[in-house]
Amino acid sequence: MRNIVVSEFVSLDNVMQAPGGSEEDTEGGFTHGGWTGPFWHDDIGAHFFEEMSKSDALLLGRKTWQIHGGAWEPMPAGDPFADVLNTMPKYVVSTTLTTASAWRNSTLISSNVVEEVRSLKAQPGKNIVIDGSSVLVHILAEHDLIDEYSLLVYPVVLGSGKKLFPEGLRVHLRLIESRPFPSGVVLMRYARA
């Protein structure tokens, strides 16, 4: 059985929205996009390569899939991270997309999400990674389908935005790793208790 690993950038107040750029996700009037930039360190990039080496599939919500695909699909071969993401199987959960052809090696999941994800977990293979995808993460957390949270916690409080954990859901976790980076970001890995 495969594990589902939620890998997120989060603020100290549990916000995961628009970490990469100011225009990335302004839903709900969010104006703090790009909040991770000042804290970048090469060790964070090394962490991503390590995490992806333990994975063989991505599971994404529509918005995150479109943002990632728009950035990575057009990149020419030879970029180490783009090569990994473009060749890896991807599953996009959406009720509005009619095709997943915009990003190579993608499969559309448009109904029975919980059952489809359970089926993916039951297949042999490495970890399945989710990043971004707040609505999908909430659904999977509510159905106890997330095995691990790999969180890069940033030393910033944003005050508003999309939250990693859904309101009212109680989740019991156990710490499996904690690693600080020189920029003040801390990797916190948690598994189900």
Descriptors:
193 residues; alpha/beta; Dihydrofolate Reductase, subunit A; eight-stranded mixed beta sheet; 8 strands; 26% helix
What does this structure look like?
It is built from five helices and eight strands. By secondary structure, the protein is an alpha/beta fold. It has one domain: Dihydrofolate Reductase, subunit A, CATH 3.40.430.10. The protein has an eight-stranded mixed sheet with strand order 4-3-2-5-1-6-8-7, sandwiched between helices. β7 and β8 (186-192) form a beta hairpin. The model has no long low-confidence stretch (mean pLDDT 95).
Give the number of DSSP strands: 8
Envelope shape? globular
Order of helices and strands: EHEHHEEHEHEEE
The first-to-last residue Cα distance is 18 Å
The largest pleated sheet is described as: 8 strands, mixed
Query: Would you identify the CATH architecture?
Result: 3-Layer(aba) Sandwich
Strand content range: 25-35%
For the record, what CATH class applies? Alpha Beta
Count of the separate structural domains? 1
Mind telling me the CATH superfamily name? Dihydrofolate Reductase, subunit A
- The helix fraction, in percent, is 25-40%
The count of helical stretches stands at 5
CATH-assigned fold name = Dihydrofolate Reductase, subunit A
Unreliable residue stretches: none
What is the residue-mean pLDDT, rounded to a whole number? 95
**Which strand order do you get reading across the main beta sheet?**
4-3-2-5-1-6-8-7
